[in-house]
Amino acid sequence: MGRETASVVDHYTRNNLMDRIRSALSAAGHDPDKPTIETLSELDHLHGGGFATTEVQVELAEIPRGSHVLDAGCGIGGPSRYLAGAHGCQVEGIDLTPEYVDIAGQLNDKVGLGESISLTVGSVTELPYEDERFDVVLCQNVTMNVEDKKTMFREALRVLKPGGAYTFSHLAEGPNGSPIYPLPWARTPETSFLETPETILQTLAAAGFTGIEDRASQARSKPGGGPQPGTIGAAPAMGDDMPMRTGNSAKSIQEGRLVSMMVVATRPM
After folding, report:
1. Which residues contact 115 (CB under 8 A, 6 or more apart)?
2. What is the pLDDT at residue 220?
3. Which of 5, 173, 231, 258 is deepest in the core (most CB within 10 A)?
4. If we measure between CA atoms, which residue out of 124, 127, 162, 119 comes closest to residue 140?
């Protein structure tokens, strides 16, 4: 494992994650022994906006019901469970952090989706899947931890069927200076690999994608856009200081230091 990869895994590893999840569910009045997809959705969508953003992204990317989806950077499995449970998708998830993959599998079994979702520890820059396997590749706020975006995008293209969709949420480099650290994906700039929106879209095109659109403005116009009052949030999986780091991200966006993106692109036929 390379130094950068090890740093990313260390950033996300909690070591006592299931205990943290059980405690958070109990504190919110849920039975930790009998979670549902709905109760888990209060804490298992680890990107900005939580479940509301996942719902919007699935809608804007027009992910077909019953499609074969790769959740690239699946975390503890919230988006995978939503796609499998609410949309009947066959989902495969991959994540760099072994603890996340282990916990995702346990939670899938608890809600009865162990047969619908398969999981792998691995990197989005070296996907262990054959060519043209998936209808959709979904990725949420993973690219900021990936320095080699050219390879990441080429791998996504390779595993998509012709006409398949690649959709990812991303925070890009803004025009008004460096973002405020610590951030949800990085406590220091050393593990944060930002590019301008223009560079991201150009790199996608160079990888071979067509029909490239940034639908962030459409996403912002949808209802929701953030964890709803009373929900748990991502702190159990991301760390107790997650509200402060999320606040730094929001302030950086407001000040033009970061730019939100929600991209949809297509592998040509």
Report:
1. none
2. 80
3. 258
4. 124
Answer yes or no: is pLDDT of 260 > 80: yes
pTM higher than 0.90: yes
Identify the CA nearest to 144 among candidates 182, 177, 179, 185: 185
Give me the CATH topology for the region 3-266: Rossmann fold (3.40.50)
Rounded distance between C-alpha atoms, residue 94 and residue 19, angstroms: 22
Q: Which candidate, 196, 208, 164, places its Cα nearest to that of 72?
A: 164
Task: Locate 117 and state its tokens.
Answer: 């979702």
**Non-local CB neighbours of 26 within 8 Å, separated by 6+ positions:** 32
Q: What is the DSSP string of 163-219?
A: EEEEEEEEEEE-SSSPPPSSBTTBSSGGG-----HHHHHHHHHHHT-EEEEE-HHHH
Query: Which helix (DSSP H) or strand (DSSP E) does residue 101 occupy?
Result: helix 98-110
pLDDT value at 94 more than 90: yes
List, in sequence order, every residue forming a beta bridge with 174; answer none if it has no partner.
none
- Non-local (6+) Cβ contacts of 163 within 8 A are 266, 267, 268, 269
Cα dist from 60 to 138, 141, 184, whole Å: 12, 16, 24
